[in-house]
Amino acid sequence: MKLTDKAAVLEAVLFACGDPVDVERISAATGIEKGAISQLADSLNEAYAENGSSLVVLRLSGLYQLAVRREYYEYVKLAAETKKNAPLTPAAMEVLTIIAYNQPVTKSFVEHIRGTDSSSVVNSLVEKGLLEEAGRLDVPGRPIAYRTTPVFLRCFGFESLDDLPPLPGRVPDEAEVSEDEPEI
Question: How many other C-beta atoms lie within 10 A of the C-beta of residue 30?
Answer without folding.
Answer: 16
